[in-house]
Amino acid sequence: MDFCIFFFTVILFSTAFVTAAPSATSSDLVQSSCVHATFPKVCFHTLSVYKGPMTTPRELAQAAIKVSITRAAKVTQFLSGMQKEANKREKGAVKDCASQISDSVDDLRKTLGELKKLRRGSFKWQMSNAQTWVSAALTNEDTCLDGFKEIEGRVRSDVKKKVTNVAKVTSNALYLINRLDHP
What we know:
Helices cover 81% and strands 0% of the residues. It has 183 residues and is mainly alpha-helical.
């Protein structure tokens, strides 16, 4: 009987240790990967709270893209609502910006799809695709802000704040993709 209790206790603690180990690994991976990112604080903050697998650099890059997709999609929704509040001059810029950010979401989704199917034989080609699409997403985000250069006020500042945040997350995702080695 004592042996059974001992055995059960060992299994229970072993299971708890194995379950806890990946999160320590994920935390270490996030910390070591984000330290040299373009925006290290943003990188660490967004990925340390991410609820998904991140035990490899590839999973970390995928998580960064997922975070970027989520944030960009929220900005698209925000911009849709902002069109109702904007004056005539602002409406055009907001509408164009919404289109640009929507294109960014599409590019980021293509990137995620490519990262999920990385293969040794086509790795360089797939990485080139992923880098191109994330770069295009960043360009779209930048182009969105260009539409507000001649506009002043709350709409501009609100849009700039939201889009700049997405651009930082997207830039960090590109950094993490660039760090990937062969699968």
